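Hi there. Long-time user, first ticket. I'm pasting a complex I've been working with (about 630 residues overall). I'd like to know whether the download I got is complete or cut off, because the file seemed smaller than I expected. Thanks.
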Amino acid sequence: MPEKAKNVAIVGAGLVGAGWAVVFARAGHKVKVYDASEATRLGLQAHLGASLEALNRHGLVTETPAAINTRIQIVETLPQAVADADYIQESVFEQLELKQAVSAEIEQAMASHAVVGSSTSGFSGSSFMANLTRRTQFLVVHPVNPPQVIPVVEIVPTPWTNPQVVGEVRSFMQAIGQVPVVLNKEIDGFILNRLQGALLDEAWKLFEEGYATAADIDATVSEGLGLRWAFMGPFETIDLNAPRGIEDYAQRFSGMYQRLASLRHEAGAWPKETIDRATAECRSTLPVEGLTARRQWRDERLMALIAHKKQQPKG
Amino acid sequence: MPEKAKNVAIVGAGLVGAGWAVVFARAGHKVKVYDASEATRLGLQAHLGASLEALNRHGLVTETPAAINTRIQIVETLPQAVADADYIQESVFEQLELKQAVSAEIEQAMASHAVVGSSTSGFSGSSFMANLTRRTQFLVVHPVNPPQVIPVVEIVPTPWTNPQVVGEVRSFMQAIGQVPVVLNKEIDGFILNRLQGALLDEAWKLFEEGYATAADIDATVSEGLGLRWAFMGPFETIDLNAPRGIEDYAQRFSGMYQRLASLRHEAGAWPKETIDRATAECRSTLPVEGLTARRQWRDERLMALIAHKKQQPKG
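Hi, the file is complete. Here it is re-exported in full:
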């Protein structure tokens, strides 16, 4: 990958792929976008326009939406998208055979120096990159939805990924304004979904056993725990929560957390009756017809929060 | 407790108790504050003034700090503080015998209608309220530090707490601008520390086994997961993350989370060598002398975030 990647290809342009197109174009790169579905390709221009307008409304772009959009080109075949690309982001449906087939197609059509990142969250890279000839140039580059709003990107090399490629992708992600985190080896769920799963399983258990309503468990996060986590991770949080830092915190509280963990129930499937009860509670305050509007509210809130964070001193 | 509690007593005026004094006074109530330590009593006026000034700087009070401060009176004995109080908030050191002794002292001196909330996080209410004559009027009312900034309050009745008292305290907390969550029964760690513990244990394991640096695990939260959690809890998050809501989400992803949970290591003590390695990493970017300034930065960020949230549409 050249030091300043200029040509980017997007393969698969659903919500995630379209978000990536905005991320790269916003950073000044030329983006060719391909999706196998004609309907998706036809709807893409309007979708990209709306995303860029929303970012613009929150002051999250430095050019006009139209200026950014001129760098995005929608193309009709996969080879057209990837042939001259320095970096290729694959975001097709989460289906293993499809990921395998598309990765092979990309490999066939791409330039010899190109690097390919997959947006997969459900599969390890090695589960569909193992048989590629240029597997040293493939790795997982997992964003959070919507990528044009949420900065974090998980970079997960397979056992065959060239370590230099990992470093280059990390730098590239940083350069385009995302926040890359690098996993040193593969693990199911990467970091983000594992942390989310640990918290979710505990939340479900507390709800299941009747300790509190879903709304009250939610408020414990949204009006308490989650406030710090919007700008500090768990380690920095505890580092600041004892006079002499993280070591001091561990000494004071690891016994308590060990006690809590020993009471933790074995995590299993979320039981149907518990899901039903949570569904009833959620739907009692937000009918299913209200979900779309609430999602728009969430995305507006996320953009406003990102804009707020940009104005704050880094400390 | 009268419908509009007017007289509040604070027993124990360290960081937590002093924060509570600000919370009640800011909401218009008269507050008498007692701490057994003369040094703490002598330093309290300056501490309260600084807290109120900081809130004022962020637009989080509607009166001048001086006007609010006139409602706070520092007194020299426990009976002076509690004798005419409608609501008493106990925030003495986390030491079981001390909690027992102080609760008994409060009970001796308080009015017959008074309600007593303990700020304890480490003990169950029943472990030190069981032998009180008026134990129906005692319960846990656990804030997050600093209470004048973080809204959530966990209300945990003992098996003897009068349910009407629970409802009154919930309403009172709401009326003073906090966000109460009610636990239906006691559990070690309540909700907040259990959720925090679940996430922390997973973070430590990922760090321990070398998947990523502490800084990268932190960034996964502060630049990803934690952004939503600053204004939505885990249940609302998943409710919005599948087309037909939480039930749909459970159907699509509970298998994945079960798989992640099955790979989860048994949580035990955090190993010393792992703590040492995390300490070395944390101290390499922030020397121990920098912790105080960083805590000030955190508190400023929290207040700015709360002010930001107040301006956002509730959806």
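A couple of notes from our side: Residues 208 and 275 of chain B are 9 Å apart (CA to CA). Chain B has a mean pLDDT of 95.
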